[in-house]
Design a protein that fits this description.
alpha+beta; 6-stranded mixed beta sheet
Length: 129
């Protein structure tokens, strides 16, 4: 299997874990010193802080699915565009969040994740947070 195949499988596993609510599996995709950055707050999280963020999201948003996954892999990383869809638990409203994720990968682990999305759409996801 080539490096690009390994990276493609890592990308799939990472997003499949979010869909399934498998936060431990998702965090296992990160290098221990990985940096996770979001354009909406421009702060850098580590894997454990990201675990808390995502654990909260999976309790608030059910029926999660990453639609329209478009993945481009390259030596040392990948870019994925998608639309995260789900149902907000508090009021049953269907929400969606178009996003673009850029990841650096080394030794089979994500070392840096940069996530870009519309802050207004994030507000809908976090409405009852």
């Amino acid at each position: 299997m080539s490096e690009l195949d390994d990276i493609r499988m890592l990308a799939k596993r990472f997003f499949d874990c979010v869909e399934a609510g498998d936060i431990d599996g998702l965090v296992a995709c990160y290098a221990p010193d990985a940096e996770i950055w979001h354009n909406t707050d421009e702060l850098i999280q580590g894997p454990e802080d990201n675990r808390k963020t995502l654990a909260g999201m999976v309790t608030r948003i059910v029926d999660r699915v990453y639609d329209d996954r478009r993945v481009e892999v390259f030596p040392g990383g990948f870019v994925q565009q998608h639309v995260l869809r789900g149902t907000r638990v508090q009021d049953g409203v269907r929400v969606n969040l178009p996003a673009c994720i850029v990841c650096a990968v080394k030794n089979g682990k994500i070392t840096r994740l940069d996530e870009y999305f519309d802050s207004a759409r994030v507000a809908e996801f976090r409405k009852y947070a």
